Amino acid sequence: MSMIMRTKYSKTGMMKYLSHLDLVRLFERALRRAKIPIAFSQGYNPHPMISFASPLSIGVSSEAEHFDLVLAEPVDENEFTHKMNLVLPNEVCIMKAKFYNEKKLTSLMKESALLTYHIEIRTAEPISTDEIKKSIDVFMDKNDVFITKIIKKNKYKHRKQAKSTKVNIRPLIHSFTIKSITEEGLILSLEIYNSDSGTVKPIIVCENWLQIADLSLDVEDFMIHRKEVMKLNDKGEYEVILK
Questions:
Q1: What positions does the domain DUF2344 occupy (predicted)?
Q2: Which of 6, 33, 114, 199 makes the best surface tag, with the fewest CB within 10 Å?
Q3: Are the C-beta atoms of residues 6 and 100 closer than 8 Å to each other?
Q4: Which backbone phi and psi does 111 adopt, to 5 degrees?
């Protein structure tokens, strides 16, 4: 039986610019400082048994990040949350933790089926709600939205050059709607599928939407925030990974 602490945390403010590798190191240090009894892998180079869900792009904030931590001994969920938040930076916060004592727990990567985002777009000029809605409808009515994806060369095959391929991102988009229009711009709601076959970054969806819609928006800034990570339950319905 494995003792696993499934954890939900937020990453906001300046911490959204922290790379995934640096974030892993941050949590490893925090676990040591909080004196959490973590389990280590076997072999010549043992490391903490911690696994993360779909990593964020640098510059994207979130209130729905997750990791699974294998424990060496049971830990109370509230005690774990309290100890970790005492040693973590203010802009990285443990929101919820749930202890599992099971033989096998489905990995976070496999459970992460739907990613939801809020995208704030700041513009220099006022925006027409009707124009934005119409442009999104035009984009979502398309069956195909192709992008060029660069496939990196194999590091063991130095003579082969990187290749490019066309990828249709439209089937990866579950929904794309207006959440609100503000004086500074607009906030969009975006839901993206996540599976073994791939996913797509929110910024790429927005860039292609603006290009296809041919909107004359004077965009000053994109701010992307992950709201939730959903899984499919036994009924085929989406629900949050950690309630």
A1: 5-202
A2: 33
A3: yes
A4: -80, -25
Q: Do 96 and 197 fall into the same domain?
A: no
Question: What is the rounded CA–CA span in Å between residue 90 and residue 12?
Answer: 9
Q: For residue 205, give its domain range.
A: 112-240
Domain boundary among 79, 105, 131: 105
Paired tokens of 34: 């909080």
- Cα distances (angstroms) measured from residue 147 to each of 50, 89, 150, 192: 34, 37, 10, 16
pLDDT, tens only, 50-97: 999 988 999 999 999 999 999 999 999 999 999 999 999 999 999 999
| Residue 238 to residue 114: CA distance in whole angstroms | 8
Rounded-to-integer distance, Cα 199 and Cα 149, Å: 12
Whether 18 contacts 94, CB under 8 Å = no
Pair (125, 38) in one structural domain: no
Q: Output the CA–CA distances (angstroms, integers) from residue 86 to 15, 78, 146, in the order listed.
A: 17, 12, 46
Domain final residue pick, 60, 77, 105: 105
CA–CA separation, 183 and 127 (whole Å): 8
Return d(Cα 83, Cα 35) in angstroms, integer: 8
To the question of pTM greater than 0.70 for the whole model, the response is yes
Cα separation, 93 vs 97, whole angstroms: 11
124, 225: one domain: yes
3-state secondary structure (DSSP) of residue 85? helix
The candidate with the shortest Cα–Cα distance to 130, out of 213, 20, 8, 17, is 213
Residues 101 and 204 in one domain: no
